Amino acid sequence: MRPKSEPLSCIGFRRVASESKHEDMTDVVVRPYRPQDHSAGRALWVELAETRSGLYGRSAGADPGAGFEEYLTRLDLSGIWVAEDSEGIIGLVGLLMFGTSGEVEPIVVSASRRGAGVGAALLKHVSGEAKKRSLARLTIRPESRNVEALKSLHAAGFDLLSAVELSLDLRSSPSTVDNIEIDLHGLRFRG
Hints:
The protein has 4 helices and 8 strands, in the order E-E-H-H-E-E-E-H-E-H-E-E. By secondary structure, the chain is of the alpha+beta class. A 6-stranded mixed sheet has the order 1-2-3-4-5-6. The chain has a two-stranded antiparallel sheet with strand order 7-8. The model is unreliable at about 1-25 (pLDDT under 50).
């Protein structure tokens, strides 16, 4: 719920019932992260960590929310925004800056609210913030196995393939979860 002192410059949008998993219309507001959002932000970080590790059949670890504490101390962190509705904080996005380039990290929407446009609103907001900071490029690095995220990001305008990150699995027993294969420039990669 937005406090009365909240500036009206925050992005807000209305979602109709047919687009939502919820039956009633819901106001969603994207606003700057505040210290009192910490527990909700940490809970979203846990969802993100569990989703990312689950893509590879791994555990998120003993305390998957610990990464949020470390994230909050990053020197390249330029801003964090949350998506909020009458149920509370339902999404989070951050902007890291490197000179004239920015990176969206993280972006996460509560599992119960995915597919309802919350992520699109967060991406629109962080893109606007990047433009305000006169950044030349805004990037995001989704997991190659997260097909839904890739589709959503592409639909949001992230359609310029600017880099590819490759990994060498050094464990004695590599993951056998969903051995996804991806072709790029005539080369076959495991996903």
